[in-house]
Amino acid sequence: MPFVLPEIPELRPSRLAMPLVNQLIVNQKRLNLEVSEKNGVHIIDCGVNALGGWEAGVLFAEICMGGLGRVDVRWANFKGFQWPSVQVVTDHPLRACMLSQFAGWSVHARNFSALGSGPGRAVANREKLFAEFGCADPSDNAIICLESEKLPSDEAIQDMLRKCQCKPANLFILVAPTSSLVGSIQIAARTLETGLYKLKTLTYDITAVRTGWGICPLPPVTPDAMQALGRTNDAIRYGASVYFNVNDEDGYLQSIIKQVPTSSSPEYGHLFATVIDQYNDFYDIDPLFFSPAEIWLTNLKSGRCFHAGAVRPELLQVSFGMEV
Fold it and tell me: Is residue 189 part of a domain?
């Protein structure tokens, strides 16, 4: 029988994320953003024409998580490699990461395409995940976070309005390219999402995951979109560490944990730029490819801790274009 998340109004991602969206709007000048309206819909440019910044990136990432996680930036040591990092924690990993932050909405229109994440996914309620966990969001407001090099076209906006079934004034669209300051932070903040996605791909019951804590090196910004895609993926695959508290059986955790980190992939040791050349399209890549560098699982039933994987600072330095 499928697990159905209980409907808890206080945990609705649109309700929790809206104050964060208002912070972006009210402080748009200080945060180096550009806010406009298109056909009555709010468009928040976080890096297409606007510069954006670290602070806006943190807010963008927390909005992606539906206000159910905390994100901050700090310096960290990755096996002797001192580098800025993005840390994320949540006490609601399934709701925050899979039902809000996960980029499960592919927005397509003529001359426009983007990956969509954020609270608006649960409002639209069109993905299998929401049918699986029975947790849509009936909110009047819809907040959609787009990873795109362009602002959405009129056709794309109308499509999002139709699917969210909300008034134009209640739709908020945030846009940040991968090759931007905000984009770099919000992708590095997807460590827990990546770990949960990998566990789910391995058919693990992610409802057993109670809390999550992750850290990832911050990919340096580059104007080259493909290079930015490579750096953000390499940062997670070779630099991200995730820690989950779970409620399960020790034997099962021992049997699955070594399949989670990047070291389990046939492409282990290769940078993303090399791997993508083997495929016709980004979406052709094996889903098992997307993994954190290392994972820790603490079993709340037994108190035992399990670990697999390792960060690879030497590969990060190459990917980041460091002069060493």
Answer: yes
